[in-house]
Write a structure and sequence with these properties.
Strands 1, 2, 3, 4, 5, 6, 7, 9, 10, 11 and 12 form an eleven-stranded mixed β-sheet that branches. Strands 15-16-17-18 form a four-stranded antiparallel β-sheet, with helices on one face. It has a two-stranded antiparallel ribbon with strand order 8-19. Helix 8 (179-191) packs parallel to helix 12 and helix 11 packs parallel to helix 14 (362-370). The protein is an alpha/beta fold. It has 18 helices and 19 strands. The protein has one domain: Alkaline Phosphatase, subunit A. A hairpin with a 2-residue loop joins strand 16 and strand 17. It is globular. The structure holds 2-acetamido-2-deoxy-beta-D-glucopyranose. 2-acetamido-2-deoxy-beta-D-glucopyranose is lined by residues 489, 491, 493, 506, 508-509. It holds the Pfam family Sulfatase. One of its GO terms (biological process) is organophosphate metabolic process.
């Protein structure tokens, strides 16, 4: 293989929590990703949106989700048709006002995607229309990990496409289909298609649907974790916090946010049976992460065998915080999430993890993975938006030691400019393929990673977030946060993330000038992105958590 421009491989996990990898604090066995982290870099202040499709739109466009077409997740926007319907930036697919990364890189690069898309259900918005020369994707945001009742249309529809052709899943997905291994098979078959590749460097996106619910994994892998979670989620949280501190992922003196749960009973109050049932869900979750890691290992082995590993920039990230099922608290189309699961699945203890089971692990296990941060997916608190990222390209990062942590603030919008910078492909600017497109809001990491620059984003960089009515705006280490009732107070809060990653001390009274400045920046951000503010949750939203005091 000739060594020309580097290949780029971006691997995205779905709802993976911050400490779910061994190298970030987990007990889950992830040797392949740990090896990448130990010979690469671990980013600890990498930020995404608080939900999956908005993050993916930012990844592929380098700009804000409210510009790229995912101003809201469609499932939520439906509750406020008068506000969102037909509004620019709220198309519900990656819109044509942005130049997508694969569109920019192809045909100089061989562009391929395998896994979840979630950036447009309908054919004009499929990946083959956005620059991917090879694509195999699940179109919606989630799917059964095994092949089970492919006739299902509403709740978990089997919508797959391959290279612009809709698949008949019953006939075209193999009976032993398992998401992580099949997405990897497809990815590798594209990668090894030398006729299509024609000697070009590749840009690959491998977007696993694990460990997103429904929690499903092979029985023998679930068995590996039997007993590991018998002390419950609060004990796991403590163990993860300690290991993360030992690994330098967080500082030992970080004050974690208190745990909030919708559950009526916490671990100590559960019966032995209830404990076993809850632990089995977490064992299954761990098995999904374990399987994901094994499949990443397969890709790395192939790159090694082809002599291409050294010449491949690899990034591994999660798309948002761990999933604590806030969705469950929001009414969707008049029925609760539990009603939708209905009688179709068999959720008996021994069946959990199989293709005809449908479980999720709940807010306590999720907070074991997001701690010390506050809350999880769908929140604008750090638990929803601060995700793990591994960067592996030793050629570029020689000035760092393998396994170093990068604490600098970064966002998913930085990935597009970083990739263009490293590959030496220019952004098209304002016009692209006959249309007007937005510029990039992110910044390349390359100068910093080569130690030619001391910073990535300076202290005056302002970054905003908005989804599900929750708002956040950050400048330097100060972050203002707004959470409408009933989930929050509907008043701006202020945090200093340099001292308080857990967002435990509301400084809005103490530093009113700082808050005022951030609220001004919020208005600018809101105007620049054309985002539509919501001050309330859908009618009928209930949230009465109990707060668990930390006894440790
Ligand atoms: C933060 O402090 C402000 C000012 O005292 C108050 O209005 C707001 O409710 C506080 N928010 C939280 C979540 O404590």
């Amino acid at each position: 293989m000739t060594v020309g421009k580097p290949n780029v491989l971006i691997i995205v996990a779905d709802d993976l929590g911050f400490t779910d990898l061994g190298s970030f604090g987990a007990e889950i066995q992830t040797p392949n990703l740990d090896q990448l982290a130990e010979s690469g870099l671990k980013f600890t202040s990498f930020h995404t949106a608080s939900a999956c499709s908005p993050t993916r739109s930012m990844l592929l466009s380098g700009t804000d989700n409210h510009l790229a077409g995912l101003g809201q997740m469609a499932e939520y926007a439906r509750n406020f048709p008068e506000k969102f319907q037909g509004k620019p930036g709220y198309e519900g697919y990656l819109n044509y006002k942005v130049a997508a990364l694969p569109e920019i890189l192809s045909p100089e690069y061989y562009t391929l995607i395998s896994g979840k898309w979630h950036l447009g259900l309908h054919e004009p918005y499929w990946p083959d229309k956005r620059g991917f020369e090879q694509s195999f994707t699940l179109l919606p945001g989630a799917g059964n990990h095994y092949k089970f009742d492919t006739s299902e249309k509403e709740f978990m529809p089997y919508l797959y496409q391959e290279n612009g052709r809709r698949l008949d899943p019953e006939k075209e997905l193999p009976d032993d289909f398992y998401s992580s291994s099949y997405f990897t098979d497809k990815f590798l078959s594209f990668l090894e298609d030398e006729q299509k590749r024609k000697g070009r460097p590749f840009f690959g996106l491998l977007t696993y649907t694990a460990p997103h619910w429904p929690l499903q994994a092979p029985e023998e892998t679930i068995k590996k974790y039997k007993g590991v979670y018998d002390s419950g989620p609060l004990a796991l949280r403590k163990q993860r916090l300690e290991k993360a501190a030992d690994l330098g992922i967080i500082t030992a003196d970080t004050i974690p946010h208190l745990v909030e749960t919708k559950d009526e009973k916490v671990w100590d109050e559960l019966s032995a049976e209830e404990k076993t049932y809850s632990a089995r869900k977490m064992e299954t979750y761990a098995a999904m992460v374990d399987e994901l890691d094994k499949n990443v290992g397969r890709v790395i082995e192939i790159l090694k065998a082809k002599g291409e590993l050294e010449n491949t920039v690899i990034m591994f990230m999660s798309d948002n915080g761990a999933e604590g099922m806030l969705l469950e608290a929001l009414p969707f189309g008049g029925t609760s999430f539990a009603d939708k699961i209905g009688d179709k699945y068999n959720n008996e203890l021994d069946n959990i993890g199989k293709g005809d089971s449908f479980v999720y692990y709940g807010d306590l296990w999720a907070q074991a993975a997001t701690a010390p941060r506050h809350m999880y997916k769908m929140w604008a608190t750090e638990g929803g938006i601060n995700c793990p990222l591994i960067f592996h390209y030793p050629k570029l990062t020689r000035e760092w030691a393998g396994g170093d942590t990068i604490e600098a603030f970064t966002t998913v919008m930085d990935i597009l400019p970083t990739v263009l910078d490293i590959t030496g492909v220019p952004h098209p600017g304002k016009y692209f393929k006959g249309r007007e497109v937005y510029g990039v809001r992110g910044t390349s990491w390359s100068p910093f990673l080569q130690r030619r620059s001391k910073t990535i984003h300076d202290d005056n960089t302002v970054t905003g977030w908005e989804l599900f009515g929750q708002r956040a705006i950050r400048k330097g280490f100060y972050k203002a946060l707004y959470v409408p009732p009933p989930l929050g107070t509907g008043e701006w809060e202020l945090y200093d993330l340099a001292q308080d990653l857990g967002e435990t001390k509301n400084l809005s009274d103490v530093l009113p000038e700082v808050l005022k400045d951030l609220i001004n920046h919020w208005s600018i951000y809101s105007a620049e992105t054309g985002l539509i503010e919501v001050n309330e949750y859908p009618k009928g939203t209930k949230y009465h958590p109990q707060i668990i005091e930390d006894k440790h």
